[in-house]
Amino acid sequence: MLFKRREFIQSGSLATASLMFPKFLKAFEHKNLVPPGNKVMVVIQFSGGNDGLNTVIPINNDIYYKERPRLGIQKADALQITTDAGLNPALSAFRELYDNGNLSILNSVGYPNPDRSHFRSMDIWQSASNANDYINTGWVGRYLDAQCSGCDKPTQAVEIDDMLSLALKGNKQKGLAFTDPRRLYSSSNESFYKEISKEHVNSEAAVDYLYKTMGDTISSANYIFEQSKLRPSSASYPSTKLAANLKTIASLIMSDINTKVYYVSLGSFDTHINQAAQQTRLFTELNDAIKAFTGDLKKNNRFEDVLIMTFSEFGRRVSQNASNGTDHGTANNMFFIGGDLKQKGLINTMPNLADLNSGDLKHQVDFKAVYATLLNKWLQTDDEAILGKNYQHLDFI
Amino acid sequence: MAENSASLENFSTEKLWEVLIQTSAKKPQKIEVARSLSDGLVKGVGEIIRMEKPADEKKAIKKKRRQENKEGIASLNLMWLDTMINSEAQLREKMSFFWHGHFATRVINSYFQQELLHIIRENALGNFGELLRSVSKSPTMLQFLNNQQNKKSHPNENFAREVMELFTMGRGNYTEDDIKEAARAFTGWGFNMQGEFVFRRQFHDEGKKTVLAKSGNFDGDDVLTILLSKRETAEFITRKIYRFLVNDNVEESRVKSLAADFYDSGYEILPLLHSMVTSDWFYDEKNIGSKIKSPIELLAGIRRYLPMSLDNDEAQMLFQKVLGQVLFYPPNVAGWPGGMSWIDSTSLMVRLQVPQVYAAKESILLTPKIDDDVAMGSKMEETVRINRNKAYVNRGGAADIEWNLIFTAFEKVKRPSLVNAISNSLVQSTKSVNPDIITRYSDGSSREAFIKSAVINIMSTPEYQMC
């Protein structure tokens, strides 16, 4: 055995950890609830291009039913929220959130010259770039840069995944990705890494960067692991991956951690074939996980300080295809969920199906304006510095 | 490999260069995964739709073909990786890897990708102008940057833009009008059902165009000639090669003078490399071990040092995915950004564990993100558990690494000097990890066990990530 892998079980005691990180002691001192006002954001990425028209359904639109003779969701089946709009039948918890004023829907979000490659369009969304630009950093990553210059733990933004998305990579700082705080802790906490880290003397800039990343990872892993144990959620969640991830997030939101942005993905929404079954399966997973998550947050008085945002790299074409599916499209809708929304329900009008760009929706809102709003009004930071441009803020928060 | 590393130290730079070009002189053998049309890989979806067959059958053919292409590219990936590891032609394969990132494409067609790779490997050390022309006319590039759709009635500017921005001059040296005009010149460039370049005259705009202050009745080749006539192109390419081979921090005066020679040689790649590799500054301390290895360089490097037979191809694909570099799947047309962008908490910790996974056969649980462009909606969540055999040291080693070669390489080294000797053979820079720590964490029960664990431990350090 090269490294004593399971060492963390012994060394995970409070005593060892607190020597290195006195903040833990502080965290353990006040067992009361987190004070209100500590705003956090949870981003849920629908990977694969979710079909927005079967998510928020234009229940009185003849064009919709004409273009989707088999795939269209009937008015009677949709969960009606306004005269003209209904939610996908699998989203009953969203309907409940809507009824309680905890759901906003923004239609027709996109960007000029839309790209139909999953990878590229996701890149554009994650980096907040124009369709013609290639930017190697993400919008949350640049938020980290601004927020966390010189800080020792890049835990302000975390992704619940085995790989870190471009969205969370900044120029100087990068967020942290993990699925299980305990596994992150054990893999990064081997004493070999700690010792070589301790012995390292400054050398080549790139080597120093590696050592710094290693040191940050070790200290962040400790910090996150301890925080996740602080007030673990006792609520019951469904046994799906998304639900497990949201439960991890809930435990951290209830702790004293400094995380402002949580990032998680669900997919694949790439429904070229037999869309209904796949979208229903994913939405059921989403719906049940969100129901448990928002319930948990409410019970713990944290719902006012949490904003959940959903997005996908593109929507899908208005017409269904020959395989009872839909092909890659353009503009799409976004959900915002939280206890502190200023504009509830439909924020703007339903997409205009009579005015299409060769079969695709035209975007009305640039997604970068949404980011600007979130950065400025929710995370209270200089959005222009992060996005490189001044976008008109929206009013939903 | 370990056994030659000692002798190379005594070579002069000229001698080293001779070895490099001798081993890379031969035309490369083509890496083939899809032989021809008869493999049914060229035919696009359009052709399937036109087939006179029931819809269900067509759907099945389409699905099968997509699967074949995906698997074909995976084979191409692993075969090329094996070639990088086992081939003597290291300079050729290294430069091919450079051009693979330079002319970055994502096209899920194994035949197209195979042909483009061959163009690149054949021309990797040849003439940049010829390479540029051949790549531009390859079906992969024609498809990826939409020249197939570039018609007089409806010009598509995608290729015209990227060829200026990313393949030749770089940003800031042309205007939007230059792009528009150049796009008109490329109208009609496409490929036929055999995957061959065709000039479709009926789609070509015959009118006069003005590109970079030159006017004429240009076609695509003329535009490439204009781009090659610009000194900015020589500088852009030289700077990028410098960053690839020497240092991410560029010494501009050096690049300028190298680029001038490159331009005057008519874009001959070999003399440019010769100037770099035989210069004194190439061996400056600050230019050694200053770059972070890309995932492919890291993975290939480990296997070059430790000859091994792998029972699990999945693991190699998985590492590429999790570390952020899958051959044939660059993030976008700009290629892999490289440098510090390779490193985040997660990728670094996985990098440090790769040697242990190979050598110790322990288990590491990783789920890469789904690539929807490849998966096309199929449920392809790959949770791959790689097995690591925990007790490999005690059991005398995993059967699949040929440790004997390593033992032989160090057989004359006395035990107290072993860690330093191994470290020197693995780590580029003179600064390496404290040998006391390596010794303390290595298995001292026998000389063999010590060598094995010291190799793996040194490979598990940040210093080993550098080249």
Description:
The complex is a heterodimer of chains A (397) and B (467). With 397 residues, chain A is an alpha/beta fold. Chain A has one domain (44-181, 237-387): Alkaline Phosphatase, subunit A (3-Layer(aba) Sandwich). Helix content of chain A is 38%, strand content 14%. Chain A is built from 14 helices and twelve strands. In chain A, strands 1, 5, 6, 7, 8, 9, 10, 11 and 12 form a nine-stranded mixed beta sheet that branches. Chain A has a three-stranded antiparallel beta sheet with strand order 2-4-3. In chain A, helix 8 (181-188) packs across helix 10 and helix 11 (241-254) runs parallel beside helix 12. Chain A is globular. Chain A starts with 7 loop residues before the first helix and ends in a 10-residue tail after the last helix. Residues 1-33 of chain A have low confidence and may be disordered. Chain B is mainly alpha-helical and 467 residues long. Among the domains of chain B are: 128-221, no CATH class; 231-287; 295-386, no CATH class; 407-465, no CATH class. In chain B, 52% of the residues lie in helices and 4% in strands. Chain B is built from 22 helices and six strands. In chain B, the strands form three sheets. In chain B, strands 1-2 form a two-stranded antiparallel ribbon. Chain B has a two-stranded antiparallel ribbon with strand order 3-4. Chain B has a two-stranded antiparallel sheet with strand order 5-6. In chain B, helix 13 (252-264) runs antiparallel to helix 14 (269-277). In chain B, 45% of the residues are buried. Chains A and B meet through helix 6, strand 7, helix 8, helix 9 and helix 10 of A and helix 17, helix 18 and helix 22 of B.
